[in-house]
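The protein record passed on for reference:
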Amino acid sequence: MSSPSESSSLLHLEVGEFTQSAYSASLDSNDDPESISRKVVERNLLRKLDFRTAYLVLIYILNQMDRNNAAAARLRGLEEDLGMKGTQFNTLISSLYIGYVFMQTPSNFILTRIAKPSVYLSSCMSLWGLLTTLIGISTNYYQALSSRFLVGFLEATFYPGAVYLLSRWYKREELGYRTAFFTAGIGISNAFGSLLASGILATLEGFHDYAAWRWLFFIEGYLTVLVGIGGMFILPDYPSGPARWLTPAEHALARKRMEENSEGHDATEPTSSGDISVVLSLMTDWRAWIVGTALCCCNASLSFNMFFPTLAATMGYSPTISLLLCTPPWIISTITAVTVARHSDATRERFGHMVFALLMLITGYVLAMSTMNFTVRYISLFFMAQAQVSNVILLTWISNTFARSSSKRAVAIGFMNCIGTSGNTLAPYIWPSSWGPTYTKSYLICIMLAISCISLCWVFRRHLKQLNKAAGEEERELNLSKGYRYLL
C-alpha cells in the first residue's frame, strides 16, 4: 500500500508517460499539466469503476425478480396449491420485508468492519438464491412463508449495502446517476422478468410433474446463485484496500476523491466515535426520523409494483397476456429513471426531481380510479411505473446528507432504509383482493402516502436550506472561502 506522498508522486509520474499520446487531442492545451494529469486518470478510473459496478445492475435485476416472482406465480395457482386463504398471500409478500427490517442496519455495520464487501454481498446473494428454490418445493403456506422470510433476511444486505459501496467510490455529484443506473434494475427486472415469467408459466406446466409456478422459483433461484458466485470476482472492494484492477495512480486518486468529497463536512457537525455512538446519534437526530418516515411513505406509495401483474390482470386478459402487458411500462420507466437521476446530478438538486416523480405516480392513480376503460387503465400503469425513480433520488439524498464518515454513512443508509422498509412490510395489506378489481381505496391510500412523503421532504429541504444560509453568512463574516453545502 502506498503512502499519501508516494501516491501523489505516482499520480504525476505515471500519468506523465501517456498524457501526451493517448489523450492530448481531447484535452484543452491551455490547461496546466497537473489538471490534465488528473483529468486523464479520473476518466480512466471512472471507466473501470463503472464497468465493475455495472454488475450491481445484474444482481439487482435478479434481486427484484426473486422479490416479485410470487405475484406472477399467483396467476398460475400458487395460492390454491399451498392452500392460502384470506390475506395469507398478502402476509407472504410482507414476510420478506420483515426480514429486511431486522437485517439492514446490522448488515451495514458489518460492511464497515470487513475488507471485502464483494465476497460478503455475493455470498448473501447466492444464499438467497438457494432459499428461493426452496420456495418452489414448498408443500404448504407455512413452508413458503418461512423460506420467504429468510430470503428477505439475506436480501436486506444487498440494497443498502450496494448504495453504501457506491458512496465509497463516487463523489456526491456523481452518485445520483450511478445509483439510478444501478436501480434501473427494477425496471429491467419488472420488464424482462414478466417476459421470463410468462414463458415459464406458459410452457412448463407439468414438466417433470411440477407446476409451472414451481419452475419459476427453481429457474430464478438457480440464476441468482450463479450470478452471486460471479460477483465475488467482479465487484470492487473499498478504495482504502487493495485494488489490482487499478493502476497505482488511479488507486491514489480514488482515495483522494473520497477525502475531497467530505471536505468541510466535519466542520458542520461533530462526528461520533464508536458503533454505539453512531446509532445513538442517529436515533436522537430528528432529521433521520423525518427522512426515514418520508422514505417509509414513499415505499408504501410505490407498493403497486408488488401487485403489478394483478393490476394488469384487472383489464380482463389471460395470465400470459397480463404478464406481457407489464413489460412496456417498465421499459419506459428504466429510461425515465436514468434521465431524471442524471439531470438531478447535473443540477445538484434532489427535492424537485423527487416531487416530479411522485406527481406522475399520483396522476397514474387518479387515472386508474376514474374508469375501468382498458386504454385509460393501461396508460395509468405507465404513469405509475415512471415514479420508481423517486425512491432512488430520496435514498441518494440521504447518502449525500449523512456523509460525514464512512461508518456513519453506512449506518445512516441502513437505519433509514430500515424505517423505510417498514412501509413495504405494511403495504401488501393496502391491496386486499376484496378491494379489486377497481382498487379505488388502495389508490386513495397511496395518494395520501405520496403527499405525506412530499410534505416531510419539504420540511427536510427547508432545514437544509437554512443550514446552507447560516454557513454562507458565517463565511462572509470570517472572510472564508465557500465550504460544504447540502444538496437540496
